[in-house]
Every structure is written in C-alpha cells, then in structure tokens.
C-alpha cells in the first residue's frame, strides 16, 4: 500500500524519516485527519483551511497550494471506500538540534490513507469522564504535540470510559480527541470557537445541519454544572462521527441510551454523507 512522503509514493514499510526530524525530536508539526466517503474527501476545503490555520499558528509556511494537495491525495484514495486521509507536516530534519527554527530546512510532508473501522460505541453510546484540562493555550491548532490529549484519553480509559471531557476554569472545552455537545433545556449547545479548543469539522457540519432543519442550537459556554444536568451529551470527531455519552462520571445521562436529538442529528449526518456519494 503506497503512502506519500516528500514528493514520492512508496510502500508504507519503505517510508522513513530521519531521527533528526523535528517532529520526532520536538513534536514540531501539525496534522489533519480527513474522512473519505465513497472515495471523496469530505469537506476538503474546511480541512485545508484548518491546515492553513494550524500552520500559521506554528509559523510554518504551507508547502503546497490547495490544488497540489488535491493532486497529492488523489492516488492514495481508493474508489468507493470509506477511509480517512492522514496528513502530517513537520518543520523537517535540521542538522543541529536547536529549539529555534532552523534555516534552509525543507519541511517533512507525509500523507497516507487508511480504512475507517466503524466505532463500536456508536449504537449504544459510551461512558465519559470529566477532568481538568491540562493542555496549553494553542488548542485551536491541530498540532502533533498530543501528549496531554493522550494522557487525558488514557485516564478516561483507565476509569472504564471511552472519552475524557475536559474542563477549564469551570467550563467544558472539548474531549481528548473530539468536540462536545450538550442538550440543555432542549437546546443543542456547544462551546464557541476559541484557542481553548479545536474547531472540529464534524462540529461545523452538525451546527449547519441543525440550523437547516430548524433544530434549536447555539454556541456558548457549558459549565461543568450544566453538563451534569444535560439531557443528552455527545462527542464528535471525523473518525467516530457522533457518539452519545450515556454515562458521565459514573452517573447515567438522560435515560442511559443515545437520546432523541442524537438520533435525529445522527440520521441527518448519515443522510448528508450519503447525498455526497
Ligand atoms: N478536538 C480535538 C482535540 C481533536 O483531536 C479532534 C479530532 O480528532 C476534534 C476536536 C474533532 O475534530 P474533527 O471533527 O475535525 O475531526
């Protein structure tokens, strides 16, 4: 299976980067995860716009134009399959290990396509655990520096959960690898864009679908207390799509099953995907 590395397509086993790569030494890079439905990248422009934002946040010029990115992805994508594109750009391999940016160093550009394995928790929902958000102030950038997210997710898994819901200064930011929605007094609420969270493309699609279908929704802060009183909680991401949280910190959410608004939005989301085939 071929992957893309720095201008070439080669078998995954042969794709190698230097141990001096700043991605390896410093976590100095950004990434994207783009679903591919029926052989077509989903919301590609939104993902490439977010890539621009992430690169700008770490002051790394985008090595490719949008049409070059499209050309790079095309040979990786199999026809008619549900897959995802993974794309990573690091500041490259410099001869000298130095925190400051190197001069005259080409970025490392890597892309591959992998099958989407349907998420086991979709039908029944998952348990989630809240915890204090230990991350930094650039969470709007999709950086490969994911150690804090990993430790949050593992802490949730250690407690029998499927996702960590992160709380900063008393308010929900997002999940370890997802955005958070709550149904509060019948209104679908998700925290608004800020440096404290990644603006998910799945989140964007759900807000659009809610608006188009006259489902009451708003972007505003969700306090930890409001989250505890929510009739429904969901986490959303490109890989898992919409997942209901049916247990929060050991307490049942709603009636312990994915709720009516989840059913509605999940159906709308699946129908929207299908309409693009
Ligand atoms: N927030 C974080 C920290 C993520 O890692 C992700 C995706 O994995 C998301 C939110 C959801 O973003 P998207 O819907 O674009 O996948």
TrEMBL record:
<protein>
    <recommendedName>
        <fullName>Aminodeoxychorismate lyase</fullName>
        <ecNumber>4.1.3.38</ecNumber>
    </recommendedName>
</protein>
<comment type="pathway">
    <text>Cofactor biosynthesis; tetrahydrofolate biosynthesis; 4-aminobenzoate from chorismate: step 2/2.</text>
</comment>
<dbReference type="GO" id="GO:0008696">
    <property type="term" value="F:4-amino-4-deoxychorismate lyase activity"/>
</dbReference>
<keyword id="KW-0663">Pyridoxal phosphate</keyword>
<dbReference type="InterPro" id="IPR018300">
    <property type="entry name" value="Aminotrans_IV_CS"/>
</dbReference>
<dbReference type="InterPro" id="IPR043131">
    <property type="entry name" value="BCAT-like_N"/>
</dbReference>
<dbReference type="InterPro" id="IPR001544">
    <property type="entry name" value="Aminotrans_IV"/>
</dbReference>
<dbReference type="GO" id="GO:0008652">
    <property type="term" value="P:amino acid biosynthetic process"/>
</dbReference>
<dbReference type="InterPro" id="IPR043132">
    <property type="entry name" value="BCAT-like_C"/>
</dbReference>
<keyword id="KW-0032">Aminotransferase</keyword>
<comment type="function">
    <text>Involved in the biosynthesis of p-aminobenzoate (PABA), a precursor of tetrahydrofolate. Converts 4-amino-4-deoxychorismate into 4-aminobenzoate (PABA) and pyruvate.</text>
</comment>
<keyword id="KW-0808">Transferase</keyword>
<dbReference type="InterPro" id="IPR036038">
    <property type="entry name" value="Aminotransferase-like"/>
</dbReference>
<dbReference type="InterPro" id="IPR050571">
    <property type="entry name" value="Class-IV_PLP-Dep_Aminotrnsfr"/>
</dbReference>
<keyword id="KW-0289">Folate biosynthesis</keyword>
<dbReference type="GO" id="GO:0005829">
    <property type="term" value="C:cytosol"/>
</dbReference>
<dbReference type="GO" id="GO:0008483">
    <property type="term" value="F:transaminase activity"/>
</dbReference>
<comment type="similarity">
    <text>Belongs to the class-IV pyridoxal-phosphate-dependent aminotransferase family.</text>
</comment>
<dbReference type="GO" id="GO:0046656">
    <property type="term" value="P:folic acid biosynthetic process"/>
</dbReference>
<dbReference type="Pfam" id="PF01063">
    <property type="entry name" value="Aminotran_4"/>
</dbReference>
């Amino acid at each position: 299976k071929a992957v893309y590395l720095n201008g070439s397509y080669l078998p995954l086993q042969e794709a190698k980067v230097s141990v001096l790569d700043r991605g390896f030494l410093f976590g100095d890079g950004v990434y994207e995860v783009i679903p591919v439905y029926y052989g077509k990248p989903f919301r590609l422009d939104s993902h490439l716009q977010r890539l621009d934002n992430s690169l700008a946040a770490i002051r790394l010029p985008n090595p490719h134009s949008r049409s070059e990115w499209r050309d790079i992805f095309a040979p990786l994508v199999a026809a008619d399959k549900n897959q995802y594109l993974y794309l990573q750009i690091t500041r490259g391999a410099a001869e000298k290990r130095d925190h400051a940016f190197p001069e005259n160093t080409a970025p490392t550009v890597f892309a591959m396509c992998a099958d989407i394995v349907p998420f086991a928790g979709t039908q029944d929902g998952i348990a989630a655990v809240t915890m204090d958000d230990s991350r930094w102030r650039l969470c709007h950038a999709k950086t490969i520096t994911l150690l804090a997210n990993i430790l949050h997710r593992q802490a949730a898994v250690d407690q029998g959960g499927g996702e960590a819901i992160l709380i900063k200064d008393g308010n929900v930011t997002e999940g370890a690898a997802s955005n958070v929605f709550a149904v509060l007094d019948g209104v679908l609420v998700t925290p608004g864009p800020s440096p404290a969270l990644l603006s998910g493309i799945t989140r964007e699609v759900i807000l659009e679908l809610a608006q188009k279908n006259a489902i009451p929704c708003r972007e505003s802060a969700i306090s930890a207390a409001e989250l505890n009183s929510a009739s429904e909680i969901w986490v959303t991401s490109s890989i898992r799509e919409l997942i209901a949280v049916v247990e929060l910190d050991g307490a049942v959410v709603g009636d312990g099953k994915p709720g009516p608004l989840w059913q509605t939005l999940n159906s709308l989301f699946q129908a929207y995907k299908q309409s693009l085939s």
